[in-house]
Queue: 4 jobs
Job 1
Amino acid sequence: MQNNERKKIFYLTLHLEGVNFKHFRKLLDYFNLKEIDNFPFIDYKEKIKRILNLSLDEDKAKFEIEKACKLGVTILTLEDLDYPSLLKKICQPPLVLYIKGEIPQGEKNISIVGARKATNYGLMTAEWLGEKLAEIGITIISGMARGIDSSAHIGALKVKGKTLAVLGCGIDIIYPPENKKLKREIEENGAVISEFPLKTPPHAYNFPLRNRIISGMSWGTIVVEAGEHSGSLITANSALEEGREVFAVPGNIKNSQSKGTHKLIKEGAKLIENIEDILEELPFKINKPEEKKEKIIDLSKEKKLLYELIDYEGKNSEELILSSNLSSQTVLSSLLLLETKGLIKRQAGNFYLRIN
């Protein structure tokens, strides 16, 4: 698109608050029209008149483009040919996308979302899903939030797969701040995306808007963990409204973070237990992962017992000593060996988790 057309769209996005997509094309059509009084949407008339009469508006749009270029950020408008085709099909596509990195071709995209305050099981499941799907060429989309989102990105990056992060703030803002390194890695192995102007803070009301982009760029959305009123359910509902697939990972019935996912399953979301459950619902062909034979691990009776006692939620060493009826020395030495073999993972407070 030519720069003057891009500037037109910036006038609208930067200066007209609450611009509605259904009015967008008419706004473009009428933008340079002298007979502005004939414009059909009364609420916008005075605003458009001000834009047409103020040269500063053009400067602001130009300045925004220049700042983005200096940051290595690409700007796409709805009228650009490179605008993601899946996203363009949703009811309210963003008028402008700021992109740092590169969006992979082919749009073989799946989003993984879930709770910020996730359980160990949820974090490990999200990472495993991100890893296994990225390994077979699927791009993982999420929101780079704490918890499930970050784990999904990490899983994809673990196998050098492609992943996209959609932000609820300006693309030049790092949120949450502890994800500075993760953001850089995503930019190098995919892209970070935002519809918000540079320097936009992470306001709470931005995130529901952000969620429609996550689902809108994806053929399907996987919800790993979600509370009863989680924002992840907004993403799932957006996916359903656009006729996209929704998947849910079942969880512990006693955990509040399972209420949202179980609700989705009751309402028709597909319960997933493995990667094949996802692949069979996708509209594109993908090479299924090769079935890997499980390694035969020679464990003593005591070590096998401990391994069976350790779950994905975590058990501390004292609890394992009591439940196994083994000596503390046997338990601690066995845990060290299981950890060395990559079967369990030690966390703070002498907690041990089973890992895939």
Note: DSSP finds 15 helices and twelve strands in the chain.
Job 2
Amino acid sequence: MAVAGGVMFSAARAEAGDVQSGGGEAFTSRGAAELKYEHNKGLPTSIQTGFKGPSFAKINVGLKIDPVKDGGPLFSIEMPKGALVEASWGADKKIILKAQNGARTDGLVSVRHTLTPSVDFQIKLGGVNATFAYSANDLVNKIPGAKFFYDSKASQQFAPWAFAPVDTKLNAPDMANATLFSMNMNVLPDLVSDNVTGSFGVRASTKPTFSYKTTKIFLSGADGEIANEASEISLPAVDGDYMELMTAVEGEMSVKGAISIQPYFHIDTIGTDLNVDSDFGVDIFSFDYTVPAQKVNFPTVLVHIPMPNVHVPSRGIDVGMVKVGGQATKKIAIENSGEKEAVMSFKSSDSQFSVPGDTVTVPPKGTYELTVKFSPDSADAAITEITVTSNDADAPEQKFKVGANGADVGAEEEDEFGLPKGDADSGCGCKAAGTSPVPGWAGLGLAGLGAVVLFRRRKRAA
């Protein structure tokens, strides 16, 4: 449907990237989407000169702004690297999403256009009194090479997301070198070509400005839309190694400029005995024009945002029997199954059990061996609650129990990592359904926008 309408889309797989903020309990991660839009049809214009010229040969010229034949799209908008979505979160189990512009200017608007004329003639020469209308297709089929000569192009870099307009200004040749077409009178119907010899054509020149701006960004599962650099939207944090958000981007392209048009004739003879051999130029007519803003709907893309995902033991850990004055050490695996580094700190509720006081960083898909030392004050059963505070978005604080000297902490037989045997990690892919915030214009291209896709590892249940 999009191709039939003159618009083609292309998009690449989202490219992941992440960066951590150093702002205490505030953390960030980001994903990058590659976006490209191509507009392959002309722009609606109503540029008409009206009938102009001498009384015996009048001409009306209409002009449209069209793609150059075999020259690619009329305009394209590319954001190959810099279309960044930033996710930030704290301890409130909410993820804040916003568009991040950055300082790069790797976005690119490219424009290439021709001027496509239609021509109406009124001929009153000798015994000829007739009106003829030629569409652009009629004219181009009569031209050797079947192509209008006008070809103007330009490009402009910009910093994504282009919430502020990006102006791409095109240059144009002077009028003397701006011939759209020139043809012999013999291409006209016999009524004219049998009675008049000569040629006719049209010169025209314009310097349009193509202005693009992004107007809306929709992210699946989030409430609302991003409409400018300051906009933020939020969604609940969900247990996952990463987030993948279906992202739809809407913008608009507007065009304005001034155009100059000059039809012209050269008459050699009229009838069989009247030699004229004269140019009949028509004055140059200039118009200011504005083209209604054209919707730019990029294809939906998947933005991949790495997340930390911390797992603590789901059952209690037993360090065994320890006499007063003795000490026992237990290494306990704390896993980060996520794709982003996890930042962790630890606290024990009982001073007989000590844990490291420093903050540690665990790489993606890494495991940290937490050393718990038990130095009993008495021979009584002892139990502590270990609190792990981290940058895990949906579980910033997790707890598990460690016991000694016969304390019942619900421990089971452990494996080599200090985790209970049989506590399986499913590794399955899961989806958390959401509600699509995308309006009806999205159609087929945004059918998948109603879900936040989270391929995640299930946390071990206590």
Note: The CA atoms of residues 330 and 372 lie 5 Å apart.
Job 3
Amino acid sequence: MDLKSMFEELGRSPDLTPFRALIEPLETYDREHNSDLIRTLRAFFAANANASEAADRLYLHRNSLPYRLSRIGELTGLDLKDHRVRLALQLGLLATTTERSRDDEDERP
């Protein structure tokens, strides 16, 4: 089994439900404030938690990213400096992405 398949299967697992719940406050905030906290979090993880690189990927001033990460911490009540928290949020994003993909497939005629 390749990694992509393994992650897709994991993302569909009901075991990720508690991790998915960690992302919900960010989704709500993004929707209500037309912001990009989820996109910011994805870029942060894609940059291996390197804030400067993530800011570059998002075309932000590098001082803007710590502000957004702080906001994510406030909304989730989690400390992104903790490697376990980062893993939990990555699992939540995985579950969210898999759920979104499944919803897109359900909407197709």
Note: The radius of gyration is 14 Å.
Job 4
Amino acid sequence: MNLNFPTGLCAERFLAEYWQQRPLLIRNALPGYTSPLDGDELAGLALEESIESRLVLERDGSRPWQAEYGPFDAARFERLPSSHWTLLIQDIEKHLPEVGELLDAFAFLPRWRLDDIMISYAADRGSVGPHVDDYDVFLVQAAGHRRWQIEETGRSEAEYIPDLDLRILPDFDPTQEWLLSPGDLLYLPPHIPHWGLAEGNGCITCSVGYQAPRLDMMALDWCDQTIQRQVPAVRYRDIPLRPQHDSAEIDAEVLSALHADLLGYLQQDPVAFARWFGCHVSEAKAHLQIEPAAVPLDREQFMAEWRMQGSIERNGWSKFLFFPATDERCYLFVSGQAFSLPLQRRSTIALLCSARQLVYSSCMHRFSDQESQELLCSLHNEGHLQFLT
């Protein structure tokens, strides 16, 4: 599946002129694309414990813009009003591979930036209200029609209407609007006020969200892990001291030496930093923790099982990333863990990250050495690769 850029625009120009800068509407961006799920199937997913779901009612609730959180029971959907409500399903690509195929259209973007695909199903006039997001999003119309409006002026957090379940902007004054049909796409960079309203029933929109990690949280995690690995649990030792005129004064030389020591402990080579970063950005969400295989296998047992089953598939909850390092190793990051193979096996690791299924007959030659087979076996035992039966 490829993104159908308009004439004169390509991935390079999009990244240079639009990404994180200004909105872009692309008509017929995904020709013929339709939702792989209908409203009844989405409602069925919202009944499941493992799936994050929400219902948003602009009216007919106990308060305006009421949000309810799943899992729901089937009777809840029978009591919904005829209009002004939306069902939202988060992380749907992690549960249904057929939805994840939509990500192929955005393969020109770094996967570590991807958060999830959220699907919204809306009755007529269904919406989550005028609001601002702090991430990049591609809004793909998959069924029905939705009218999108945006404001060009920025808004602050303080402007949201207080005491609501959602962050709703008051006095929304749109400067542009578009009606999207199936296959159309609207890209919005962060912090653009926007409002999407379903026109007619059966409106399905896929929101492909690219959420950047917060700098303070990254710094906290990096410092914490660096301290655990590199800072010894010993007491400070004085540099050679001289008698002080005023004992309450902090000596500048002492402070400078201590500052240099602490900074020295935090220094990391590029490979160590890359290993930390890959683990950090591949970590699974708290509610999507991967369970290890019920029966762990050794390498020979795994290879025999792979040959017998014919294929093995990637766990949709696992995030696979890689980095070819300067220490002659290629690092694979899966849900916060780091694995590696020799750098000359880069294409093998790239295949692991790109292929949703590994078919034995066509892939076995890529994993003919013992180290590659041990890696596959470890990924299976950790729950990141799963046999279909």
Note: The first strand starts at residue 24 and ends at 26.
